[in-house]
Amino acid sequence: MTPKHSPVPTAPDHDELELMLAPCALACSAAESHGIYCGLLASGVAAPRERWLAELLPAGSAQGADGRAAALRDALLALAAATDNALAATEQAFHPLLPGDERPLRERADAVHGWTRGLLYGLGIANLDAAGLPPETREVIDDLTKITQMDLDELDESAENEAALTEVLEFLRVAALLLREQDRPARRT
After folding, report:
1. Taking a C-beta distance cutoff of 8 angstroms, is the pair 103, 17 a contact?
2. What's 3's DSSP letter?
3. Which residue blocks in 90-154 are alpha helix, DSSP H?
4. Could you tell me which residues come within 8 angstroms of residue 31 by beta carbon, excluding any fewer than 6 positions away?
5. What Cα–Cα distance (Å) separates residue 162 from each residue in 111, 150, 165, 168, 174?
6. Which tens digit of pLDDT belongs to each residue from 50-85?
7. Taking the complete model, does pTM exceed 0.85, yes or no?
8. Residues 6+ apart with CB under 8 A from 20
9. How far apart are CA 76 and CA 33, in angstroms?
10. Which domains does the chain have, with CATH numbers?
11. Which range (14-18, 90-94, 116-120) has the least confidence?
């Protein structure tokens, strides 16, 4: 008898999750919601999934008249499981949940901005104390903060901006891994 293996969870599609999140009171994008989860994971907070769902799904939202709330919860749990597996696999397996490369640069840059905001929010709600982190990790958090301060209003489709976005994406991927690998996250009590 061959042992059954549970299937590897697949992250929901960015656009599908975006549509599911649209009616939520939190007004959180798919990218931002993924960033929040990654921030909670990086902080080392207990029960990150439950904490994340509590942020995204207000009390009582599990009972949707048409099942939309349950579908959203299922999609978020699939995203969390896929993220956990990607972070545990290899450095190359983890990627922020963002729109595809075929989308306009501005839309992708907005999503990167939202993901980064979400990551910092996740660290914040976990009471991460940046002052208690090693200097290189504090520098990463400072760089993440700078990303959230980027002015995207006049971003145009150019090879230079495309290359810059690619560099920022690689930085985000590595930053999430670095923050997650901290031995003892510094949390305020």
Report:
1. no
2. P
3. 105-125, 135-148
4. 14, 96, 97, 98, 99, 111, 112, 114, 115, 118
5. 14, 15, 5, 10, 19
6. 999 988 886 655 544 457 788 889 999 999 999 999
7. yes
8. 12, 68, 71, 72, 75
9. 9
10. 14-180 (1.20.120.740)
11. 90-94
